[in-house]
Design goal:
About 30% of the residues lie in helices and about 30% in strands. The protein has about 300 residues and is of the alpha+beta class. The structure holds 4'-deoxy-4'-aminopyridoxal-5'-phosphate (PMP).
């Protein structure tokens, strides 16, 4: 069970144990909600900064808009609420989870009169795919679940109900003994992980699926692309097939929860020599330097507590 002291609910701080919803909460039944996952890092100089808070809150409000929910809070108010939640919990480093959901009222599908509620929780969370995974790489497989049509999933919104697809894929992967599932789209092209974007290195170039595919516009994906360009690496945003994973010299995944995680094996086939490769290592190191310091090469990515 997640441990936290205080949650932010509709503008007020409440004890964590009282941050509850009614069983007829519309979102609980049908999954219409927008959410974010955000990390705050304690940096090398001892100060804490939320990584790319502005972009996360912008995406949250866009997801709510895509999900036809009018959030009553502005970007600035939600940014301040994240900072307030961190401080109220006396956290220096944490994962933040804002959620905009459709509250209790009617249970008809439309439920246009139900209140739109907003909540934020914060709690410590280690890298999703494990410290070992970050260091040595994870084992992944091609999921039997498929990312849906663009107009079915509306993948640019981080909308709760869409995550049934990811939850099923994650449970399948874990049950089969893999750390992660890699999802293909309906045409069989590589899309993303259950909660991560994916990159491969092939003949010295970095490839990642383009945003017109059914994938989330990941904020870590964007950070890694900025850092890779900065390091003069060659990047190609273009669709690629499953077999490209098998012949890639490196594969890695990016996400707020999983950060930059190397993949050392796909479908029981070793990637490269089965160890994280030099490009993955370099981008990992640049990512952690940006998030944790030392140095502030990207001050625009830091929202100080
Ligand atoms: N794809 C999916 C499906 C995700 O859930 C996430 C996590 N938010 C990502 C990609 C990575 O996005 P980000 O880097 O913004 O966390």
């Amino acid at each position: 069970m997640i441990k936290s002291e205080v949650a932010w609910m509709n503008g007020k701080l409440v004890p964590f144990g009282q941050a509850n919803v009614h069983v007829i909460t519309h979102t609980l039944h049908y999954g219409l909600a927008a959410f974010e996952g955000i990390r705050c890092y304690k940096r090398a100089d001892g100060r804490s900064a939320i990584f790319r808070l502005r972009e996360h809150i912008e995406r949250l409000l866009e997801s709510a808009k895509i999900a036809t929910m009018d959030c009553t809070y502005t970007r600035e108010q939600l940014e301040n609420a994240c900072v307030e939640t961190m401080k109220a919990n006396k956290l220096e480093e944490a994962y933040l989870r804002p959620l905009i959901y459709l509250g209790a009222g009617m249970l008809g599908l439309g439920a246009t009169a139900n209140p739109v509620e907003t909540a934020i929780v914060a709690f410590p969370w280690a890298p999703l795919l494990g410290e070992e995974g970050i260091k040595h790489g994870i084992r992944a497989h091609i999921s039997t679940y498929v990312r849906g049509h663009l107009n079915h999933t509306m993948s640019k919104g981080k909308i709760s109900g869409q995550y049934v697809n990811s939850v099923l894929a994650k449970r399948e992967a874990n049950r089969l003994g893999y750390e992660e599932g890699i999802m293909l789209d309906a045409q069989g092209r590589v899309a993303e992980g259950t909660g991560e974007n994916i990159f491969i290195v092939y003949r010295g170039r970095i490839y990642t699926p383009p945003l017109e595919m059914p994938i989330l516009n990941g904020i870590t994906r964007d950070a890694v692309l900025v850092l890779a360009r900065q390091a003069k690496m060659e990047i190609v945003e273009q669709p690629f097939t499953r077999d490209m994973l098998y012949v890639a010299s490196e594969v890695f995944m990016t996400g707020t929860a999983s950060e930059v995680t190397p993949v050392r094996e796909v479908d029981a086939r070793p990637i490269g020599d089965g160890k994280p490769g030099p490009i993955t290592r370099k981008l990992q190191q640049m990512f952690y330097a940006a998030a944790r310091g030392p140095g502030e090469e990207h001050p625009e990515w830091l929202h100080w507590l």
